[in-house]
Design a protein that fits this description.
about 775 residues; alpha+beta; Helix Hairpins; D-amino Acid Aminotransferase, Chain A, domain 1; OB fold (Dihydrolipoamide Acetyltransferase, E2P); 5-stranded mixed sheet; 5-stranded antiparallel sheet; 26 strands; about 20% strand
Amino acid sequence: MNTGAASEAIDVYQTLVETLNRYAHAYYVLDNPLVLDGEYDRLYRELTALEATHPEWIALDSPSRRVGGPPLPGFRKAVHPIPLFSLANAFGIEALAAFDKRIISADSPPKDGDVGDESPKDGSAADGGQKYPRYFVEPKLDGLTLALLYEDGLLVRAATRGDGMVGEDVTAQAATIRSIPPRLFTYPAAAATAGKANASPPSVPLPMHIYVRGEVTLPIAAFNKMNAQREAASEPVYQNPRNAAAASVRNLDPRVTASRGLRYTAYALTLLDDQRQPIPAIETSFATQASVVAALKAWGFRTNSNNRECVDYSALTAAIDELQPMRATWDEETDGLVVKVNDLVLYERLGVAGKDPRGAVAYKVQAADVAVTRLTGIDVQVGRTGAITPVARLEPVRLGGVTVTNATLHNEDQMRALDLRIGDWVRLERAGGVIPAVLGVDQGGARRDGSEQPFAFPTACPACEGPLNRDLEAEPVTGGAAAVDSGEVAAEGAKGTSGVILRCANGACPAQVTARVRHYAARGAVDVAGLGANWVDRFLQESFIANAADLYHLTREQLLSLEGSGMGELLADKILAAIDSTRAKTPLARFLYGLGIRHIGAETADLIAPYVGSLDALREGLRGDPKGYLGRLEGQILETKGLGQAVATALIEALRNPALLALLDRFAEGGMQPLPAAHRTEAAARVDGPLSGKTFVITGALSEPREAIASIVEDAGGKVTESVSGSTSYVVAGDRPGGSKMKAAAKHGIAILDEAALRLILQGS
């Protein structure tokens, strides 16, 4: 081929690549085909013929790369140029209102002398200086987070979120997902679809280095089709589209990823400099989250058509009311709505609390509908307190925007009251918009055909075959759906279901041990970041640990002995560093909660911690004069509002057990030293100061442990209590504030401050 002909052929090839990518974008992203399938296939055959003759021409963004190459030997680690943070949850309208007040306070700080919350009830700025619509709302897609790095418009890397700092390089897999553009549009994409529905917006100048964040999902129809094929092939089916999407992306064979019909929806953007460092929002041309989403769409990404820009709090709640009933009709699963501060400079200025950006929350909306499905089986699980919990296994059904496959049944008495039988058609709801719960048998059992079977409760522990005790009490149900999987349904704060609770009497039951270690390491307790349930189970199986205290005695050599099963040097060092970070930074209240003592929930532990003081004081009290120490502790608990005999009895009985003292000693030997809690007698002595006469309640995650914030308030003469009453002056609310405290504050008309407002008060005092 002469030079001129070769050049012309290359031009033809490049035009084919560009044309086919534009057609694919219209089909997979805009859902607006520009040509018939036959025409696309003809051009595709022409393309692959040229590539077969001239493999040196194959472009990085060629459509032929979508089919996937051979399996990879393993995933490389990928360091994110920016942390990929998680989101705090907001359950209910009270939590959303508290979030709104914190945002307004940050955007319009109180003037000198103002200590109360004087913000307008509608959420608009007090000084009328709001630049942009305040909020941006988008569906919270339930899939796998994927971050894409583009250099000069070309996709150069795709990475899973991982721990937020380091993920896995899945570029080969991401390249097969049709809605991930291999090369971004740098020309007016709207020209190709002029006059068409869902046409792309005009082009937006494309920065040289960008980091795009989005969610990979598996549409419901594709999920059902895939599971039907797997079932026909006698392969295990996936429980839900989220798990299927994650497994598809994290499959070492990109051809598997390509076959699944995955979808990518972009929702966040970070501009990077030449050193791949983030550029501050104030130095970019993007003022709002809405402008970011518009740019992503212009560059060729799929964005969510149900996003909403909301001028203020009233518009925000209206958008939520509009979107909530629509969730059940969407073709991909959601687990709520994301509410973001629209102003990107303000969002950046708000910063991060722990691992959660202060400028966004995941609003878990109440499910308004009830679903009907088949009860296919009942399993029993053993929780950390030994409670034997029945869990319903269900034919998959859509409910509140997600696919439900199991639900809590609480206890034996409730099951008998509902007259549940395996094979029944049952009605479900998602309690609080989160926990699937069985309401009863559909149509009062009129649909039964005689094949239904009653369920017989076990007479011995299913995990250790030990004896079962029967407790008659109101047993609270879990505050999160994940607990159904872990077998622990007893947790603080949710409405209980009275009845007989079967409980394994063997404290050494392996299921209880596993649940207790998982509970200790969980985010709501001591929070050993990155230590998932699977690794806890593996460490127990390998006899590396026998309890939570043994985590502080793990060695690098032990972890590296698991190499080849997912453990490597990087992960081993990360887990050990996460464990080490909890040694001196865990508040005593979280440590007490993490012990998993029955009836000692997170808020209860906050109330008890000041009486305990420190881990060393607790060990000394139990070793020196245990009878006198426990008597005094029981009396203090019984005199505390919000606590009672059940809490006192459970704690004292646990502390009387020599095995618990041995466990506490094991913690101390491993270097675990929780942050001490100020004794109440010490706090009461601080009566003089600029905050004298003011009573504060502190709730939620702040920049420092609650004990440290309480000490600052008490040093200024304020009083800190654990429960909200009519005599409370202020509630200081961080991220994820306690729902009961926020409701009580609203009931009594108590002013709610965020941490910044509290510090302004202290400065003014």
